[in-house]
Specification:
By secondary structure, this protein is α/β, with parallel strands linked by helices. It is built from 22 helices and 13 strands. A hairpin with a 2-residue loop joins strand 2 and strand 3. The protein starts with a helix and ends in an 8-residue tail after the last helix.
Length: 568
């Protein structure tokens, strides 16, 4: 379904030949006051292009929109104010929602295209903390946005399962822990001994030498080292999966750093063969000075590989395995230069698909202004955060609705949803200073507000007695829309497709989160101003409008990864 703005822009394009449809789309805006129209075209930016005053341009265009969508146009102070026909909103917009139901907003326009999305990627042997949450929920939402538009998505969890930290863990395990303790406490015990290692190493630096030796044994496939590494990894994955289950997230691949150990040598040989490697004080680099970037380090002077080497090998493997149309990496903006460097190396290797590699950055999470650090114990674990959120929601449920069925699960769904929504309501590039108070605030424009409004719409539909087959446009007339609150709500609902397109274009889930708040506010204003189930002449129309709210909110909640709570 084409949204109203795109149809209007297409028509205006015929009258403004100097501007493209995209340019007009970018200029069209939604006025804050309905008296200024349902859409408006500010003509000030067009003045230089068309060499006319904004008022003259608006006057010229006022009669150009002779289409069935538009009721009238007005030229006011350099703005072209456009009013949409209410009958069009009912006969087309509402009709498409009622026909589409839970499928409304979905599209197969990108069927046959594959996108790989690399997100979450926690370090093994460390529990999930709030620093991991951003990549996880942003990446998951970006995946669902792509799926909504017909892409085949491959979710990849590039686990941090290799590196000197495993040498440290082996030393720590042998010094201060036991098999029984780790099997009893899992990742909690691994973190305890990891933190202890760093505090002890400050007093006894020889521990670092021992750790390097153990990691060297691991790299050489020493039987004991490999066995301990696999054990630590299995223990960690059990705990990580519990967190993913609470978030309703799964992956198609858990191929982490270790998976590419035997795939880097061919990359290094290819770089040598293509004369891209340069010796720099014993290290091997790709010189990127011509592209205003520092060199990309491929091999250290001791011959060991780096993240860039591993990432190039991983990209080549993914292209060969999945033949992706896009490969998206969801990591902190602090890694932006790293991705620009190795993306450029892939391009210099002659691979045209380098243009399909995309880094989606996000702001960092700090706590009290301090950087998060497991080794220093400056961390908030997600399990603790989710448990506290669920506890607070359960307290509210016990106070207001103590007989609710399955209230512990609902409290968890709403509590986790509050945390996720709090993150996704911010622009992803924004840095976040974590506070318990903000994360567990359930008042105002929050996840619980959206989930509760969705439940309210579901409750109205249940009480209406209409079955699924009754949700149709039979006997519905435009005249059944009788007030401004109904029209305002339908206008807000009509923006759903546009918001999905914008979120997908910008890879920005907050477009959806903020839009859902707008829908909730419009619905609750309508709900509190007008009766629905006791309406005399337009009861079915108002029920259908409520059903449309359910479909839009439900699909929006799905996209951002929140549970659809039908009863709260």
């Amino acid at each position: 379904m084409k949204d109203i703005k795109s149809v209007v822009a297409k028509k205006l394009e015929k009258s403004i030949e100097q501007l493209s449809w995209t340019d007009i789309m970018d200029n069209l805006e939604y006025p804050p006051n309905p008296e200024m129209g349902d859409l408006a075209l500010p003509c000030f930016k067009l003045s230089r292009v068309l060499r006319k005053s904004p008022i003259a341009i608006a006057d010229l265009l006022v009669n150009s929109l002779d289409i069935d969508i538009v009721e009238k146009c007005e030229s006011k102070g350099g703005y072209l104010n456009i009013f949409i026909k209410r009958e069009y909103m009912v006969n087309n917009i509402l009709k498409n929602m009622v026909i589409g139901k839970e499928e409304f907003g979905k599209s197969n326009e990108n069927a046959g295209k594959t996108v790989c999305i690399d997100y979450s990627a926690p370090n093994i042997a460390k529990p999930f903390h709030i620093g991991h949450l951003r990549s996880t929920v942003i990446g998951h939402s970006i995946r669902r946005l792509h799926e909504f538009r017909g892409y085949k998505c491959v979710g990849i969890n590039h686990l941090g399962d290799w590196g000197t930290q495993f040498g440290k863990l082996i030393v720590a395990y042998k010094s201060w822990s036991s098999k029984e303790l780790i099997e009893e406490k899992g990742t909690e015990e691994l973190v305890r001994i990891y933190v202890k290692f760093h505090s002890e190493a400050e007093k006894d630096p020889s521990l670092n030498d021992q750790a390097r030796k153990w990691f060297s044994r691991l790299e050489k496939k020493d039987e004991e080292a490999v066995e301990l590494w696999k054990w630590f990894k299995d223990i960690s994955l059990l705990d990580i999966e519990k967190t993913y289950k609470m978030l309703d997230i799964s992956f198609d691949s858990y191929a982490g750093e270790s998976f590419y150990n035997d795939k880097m040598e061919p990359v290094i040989e290819e770089l040598k063969h293509k004369n891209l490697l340069v010796n720099s004080d014993g290290a091997m680099i790709v010189n990127l000075e011509e592209y205003n970037m520092p060199p990309c380090l491929i091999l250290k002077s001791d011959g060991s590989s780096l993240y860039a080497t591993r990432d190039i090998a991983a990209a080549m493997y993914r292209k060969k395995t999945y033949d992706f149309d896009k490969c998206i990496y969801v990591t902190a903006t602090a890694q932006d230069l790293h991705f620009k460097q190795w993306f450029k190396v892939v391009e210099l290797m002659g691979y045209k698909w380098a243009k399909d590699l995309k880094h989606v950055g996000f702001g960092m999470v700090s706590m009290g202004g301090a950087k998060l650090a497991t080794r220093e114990g400056n961390i908030i674990y997600l399990d603790d955060l989710f448990s506290e959120a669920a506890k607070r929601v359960l307290d509210i449920i016990n106070e207001k609705n103590p007989d609710m069925e399955d209230k512990e699960q609902k409290a968890l769904d709403i509590g986790v949803g509050a945390i996720v929504f709090s993150d996704l309501s911010n622009n992803r590039i924004k840095d976040i200073d974590f506070s318990w108070e903000d994360a567990l605030n359930f008042d105002g424009s929050t996840g619980p507000y959206v989930q509760y409004t969705y439940a309210r719409a579901c409750s109205v539909l249940r009480k209406s007695g209409l079955i699924e087959d009754d949700i149709n446009m039979d006997n519905i007339e435009p005249s059944h829309m009788t007030n401004d609150e109904e029209f305002a709500l339908l206008k807000t609902l009509s923006l759903f497709n546009e918001k999905i397109d914008q979120a997908l274009k910008d890879l920005e889930p907050s477009c959806i989160s903020r839009y859902l708040i707008d829908v909730c506010m419009a619905f609750n204003k309508f709900y509190n101003s007008h009766t629905i189930l006791n309406a005399e002449d337009n009861k079915k129309f108002r029920i259908l409008l409520t059903a449309a709210v359910k479909y839009v909110l439900g699909n929006g909640l799905y996209i951002i990864g929140l549970k659809r709570t039908e009863r709260v």
